[in-house]
Structure formats: C-alpha cells, structure tokens
Amino acid sequence: MMEWTILGAGALGCVIAGQLHQKGEQVGFMLSERHRGHFHPKLDLITLSGSHQLINSQPRFPEHSRKVECLLVFTKAYNVLDALKELRHLPKSTPVILFNNGMGLTEQVKALLPDNPLLAGVCNHGAMKEQDWLVRHTGKGETWLGPLNEAGKAWAHLVKPLAAALGHTEWGDDIALHQRRKLAVNAVMNPLTACNNISNGQLLEPRFSEVLEQLTDEVYQVIARLDGNDAETKEAYRRRLHQVIEQTATNSSSMQQDLACGRKTEIDYISGYMLTHADGLPVPVSQQLYDEIKKREDSMQRPAPGAKRQA
Ligand SMILES: NC(=O)C1=CN([C@@H]2O[C@H](COP(=O)(O)OP(=O)(O)OC[C@H]3O[C@@H](n4cnc5c(N)ncnc54)[C@H](OP(=O)(O)O)[C@@H]3O)[C@@H](O)[C@H]2O)C=CC1
Ligand SMILES: CC(C)(CO)C(=O)C(=O)O
C-alpha cells in the first residue's frame, strides 16, 4: 500500500493525515530538524464532533526521502522551497502536491524538481494547532486537486482516496483558476483582519464597509483579468466572499493569528502576488495593507530598543 508522506506536521497537515489514516491509508510525517531526537507521541486529532482520535504516524527525516512515494506539502508558503531542497534523495517519479495558500511558487518548484509530477491542492478545510501533536479540525470544505506540469496530469486517480478521506474533492485541469478563487478571498480577509486585529466576522461591522468594498473591487479587477473568459461575475465573487466571512465569523484568519503571535505571515504570496499581477490596475488599499504588514513583520524581527543581544 502506498504511503502518503506529509511534509509540514502543522495544523492542516495533521488534520489531513488524521482523515487519511481514519480511512485506512498509510501516513508518514516528514519532520523538520527541531523534532530530531525527540520523542514522537501519537498525534491527537480533535475531530469536528469534538472526539479525540489518536493516530500512530511514522516520523521521517530528509535522509528517508528516497522511500517517499507521494509527498503532500503542508508547510507555509515561505517554507516550501527550503523544505523541498532538504529532500535531496526524493525519487524523480514521486508526485509532489503543494497545499499551501497563496500563489507564486509554481515556477520555482518546477525549476527545483524538473522531473517530478507536480500538483496543487486547494483545500478549504479548517485546522488549528493547539500544541505540537494536538490539532483541532475546525471546519469542512471542498478540496480541488490539479496538475502543475505535464507529469502531474497522470495522477488524477489520487482524487478517489482523497475524496474518501476528506469528503468533496474534485479534479481541476486548470488548478490555477481554483487557486485564484481562494486567493481572491484571502487577499481581502487576511490583510484586513490582520491589520485591524479583528475576527473574520467583524469585517461586516459598518466601520469596515467602505474599505471592504474598495478592497473587494481592487481584488476582483486583478483576479478577473487573470481569469479571462473564466472569470466569475463580481456579484458571484461578492456572494462567495460574504459566505466565507459569515461561515468563519467567529474564527481568526491565519494572518491575524500569525501577526498577533509575532510570526511571519504569507502576505508575499497573497497580497504580494496580487500587487505583482495588478499590471497598471489601481490597487491602493492592497498596497497600503501590504506595506503595513511588512512593516510590522520587520519590526518583529528587530530587537526591541535596549534589549540585550544574545551571545
Ligand atoms: N490551517 C488551516 O486551516 C489552513 C491552512 N492552509 C494553508 O496550509 C499551509 C499550512 O498551514 P498550517 O497547517 O495552518 O500551518 P502550520 O504553521 O500549523 O504548519 C506548518 C508546518 O510546516 C512545518 N515545516 C516548516 N518547515 C519545514 C521543513 N523544512 N520540514 C518539515 N516541516 C516543516 C512546521 O513544522 P515545525 O513547527 O515542526 O517547524 C509546521 O508544523 C499554509 O499555506 C496555510 O495557509 C490552507 C487551508 C486551511
Ligand atoms: C478563509 C480564511 C480567511 C478563513 O479564516 C483563511 O483561509 C485563512 O485564515 O487563511
């Protein structure tokens, strides 16, 4: 039986691993260096119904990459390239599926792994890491899988076991279209909630109505131009965005959580991607939010004035 190797044992990677495991699939975790030499307890997954599921997974490190049969990448976008570079022995025939949010990595991953079948997954499940090896499944949504290169097209059959484990999962020949649909939601919700330190649902308060409207228009123009004939109508996009805001009203966006906890955000792959592809379209609100988040990220990395340097 093929083993699914999860690179990135964080919130989403653990939830997907848990769901695959529950369906009898074999799952292993390719771990970062900080786990080396540590005891690996069973993964404790809190399911949507609140029950605990204990999962016995196989810990792996880059020297085991020769044996990887199918790699699912669940690191943050800014860690994808470095994490893949560590897997020097990854067979050229192993399919690699990128599940990160945001866009802009495809060409670099193609250059790094020119022979491997490459795919992208667009996953709308929700996951939260409560601590190492304790992860909560917070929401169910549809998943799309599609090819990023020619060799990736031969792996459409992976949809079947993924659908059995994750629920609604479909193959999309034009996976970039589905990535942009998700980006269009993230490029509004993530920077606005992060900059204002609010929950997703607070975006619907009257004080944000003007900025929400302006940002929605900017993002729509850029994404619709990239989508060409496949663009959704502005009304359909607005409805979809408001549906996500309402369905996740009590949640905090990933960017809000990252910024509030002093972690790096995925802004370069979300708003940064939008700005790079604006190509003359006016995007002042996106630019302002992008600049603000980069400024806060930079200030987090600088030691506070008067703080002692570590020897
Ligand atoms: N959480 C969610 O609900 C959703 C998340 N996404 C997207 O999925 C991606 C992952 O998100 P999420 O799970 O929340 O993020 P997390 O930060 O919880 O998980 C990322 C994991 O990647 C691991 N990692 C980083 N570098 C390496 C490396 N070199 N080798 C092995 N592992 C590495 C980290 O491991 P360690 O901590 O051990 O260093 C960390 O556990 C993001 O792009 C996110 O936007 C998409 C949909 C929903
Ligand atoms: C849709 C949204 C904003 C839900 O929180 C998300 O995907 C994120 O937080 O990154």
Q: What is the rounded Rg? A: 20 Å
Biggest sheet strand order reads 5-2-1-6-7-8-11-12
Q: What is the CATH first-level class name of the largest domain?
A: Alpha Beta
In CATH, the architecture of the largest domain is 3-Layer(aba) Sandwich
What would you say this structure looks like, in words?
The protein is an alpha/beta fold. The protein has 2 domains: 3-172, Rossmann fold, CATH 3.40.50.720; 177-297, Orthogonal Bundle (N-(1-d-carboxylethyl)-l-norvaline Dehydrogenase, domain 2), CATH 1.10.1040. The protein has 10 helices and 12 strands. It has an 8-stranded mixed sheet. The model has no long low-confidence stretch (mean pLDDT 94). Bound molecules: NADPH dihydro-nicotinamide-adenine-dinucleotide phosphate and ketopantoate. Belongs to the ketopantoate reductase family. It holds the Pfam family ApbA. Pathway: Cofactor biosynthesis; (R)-pantothenate biosynthesis; (R)-pantoate from 3-methyl-2-oxobutanoate: step 2/2.
Q: Could you give a short description of this structure?
A:
Its EC number is 1.1.1.169. The chain has 311 residues and is of the alpha/beta class.
Topology:
Layout: E1 3-7, H1 11-22, E2 26-30, E3 43-46, E4 52-55, E5 58-60, E6 70-73, H2 80-85, E7 96-98, H3 106-112, E8 118-123, E9 126-131, E10 134-139, E11 143-147, H4 159-166, E12 169-171, H5 175-196, H6 209-227, H7 234-247, H8 254-260, H9 271-276, H10 284-301
Parallel strand pairs: 1-2, 1-6, 2-5, 3-10, 6-7, 7-8, 11-12
Antiparallel strand pairs: 3-4, 8-11, 9-10
Helix pairs in contact: 1-4, 5-6, 5-8, 5-10
The protein binds NADPH dihydro-nicotinamide-adenine-dinucleotide phosphate and ketopantoate.
NADPH dihydro-nicotinamide-adenine-dinucleotide phosphate (NDP) is lined by residues 7-13, 30-32, 34-35, 74-77, 79, 82-83, 86, 99-101, 123, 126-127, 129, 254, 266.
